[in-house]
Amino acid sequence: VTLDACEVTDNSLKGIHRISGSSLTTSNSALFNNGEFAMYSAVESPLMSAPNCWWGHASGPRDSSSGPPLFNPDGLGDRVSDYVDFSPWASNCVNCTDAVGGDINNDGQVDAVDLALAVDFIFFGGAPPYGSSGDMNCEGFVDAVDLALLIDYIFFGGPGPVDPCAQ
Questions:
Q1: Contact (Cβ atoms closer than 8 angstroms) between residue 102 and residue 108
Q2: Which of 57, 144, 150, 164 is surrounded by the fewest CB atoms within 10 Å?
């Protein structure tokens, strides 16, 4: 099975869950905001392949186990299980169809709820923003500068992007 240019988001447990040994490739896709795992393989072989995918953060998916084939304990994106080859990963959102700058919860409004989610993500390791929506200055990641821009936009009418960052 081959999936290309897909968006797999907002699943409560697993975005893609392979339970048998069939081949599965997902490429050029956005996999983020999934509960336990963006991609999970219950079998060792063949490896699942996911090149050039966005995992919700420029640091790539979180793979904290030392099992094959890769290891990325510092990844801040959605989790992947062993037996998922996620290299190379995209450093910004690919094929995110409806991300809006500042609309972190993707409800169509940029408001205090989005600000709370940004604070939770930046300072407490909460869920990553929807696609590139938290990246207010389009530098490829979400940090305190984006938080300051979001505060300026919400409370003081400062500039805020109305479209997602160029992807």
A1: no
A2: 144
Ranked by mean pLDDT, which of 7-11, 60-64, 118-122, 154-158 comes out on top? 60-64
- Cα–Cα distance between 167 and 80 in angstroms, integer? 23
- Alpha carbons 48 and 98: distance in angstroms, whole number: 27
Q: Which two tokens stand for residue 101?
A: 């700058």
Whether 162 shows a pLDDT value over 60: the answer reads no
88 cis-preceded (ω within 30 degrees of 0): yes
**Residue whose tokens read 């995992």:** 55
Instruction: Report CA torsion sign: 119, 123, 129, 135.
Output: positive
Segment 8-12 shows an average pLDDT of 85
- Interhelix angle 144-156/112-124, rounded to 10 degrees, is 160
Question: Does the pLDDT of residue 163 top 50, yes or no?
Answer: no
Nearest one of 97, 107, 106, 104 to 122, comparing CA atoms: 104
Longest dimension (CA), the chain: 54
pLDDT at 97: 54
The pLDDT of residue 43 is above 50 = yes
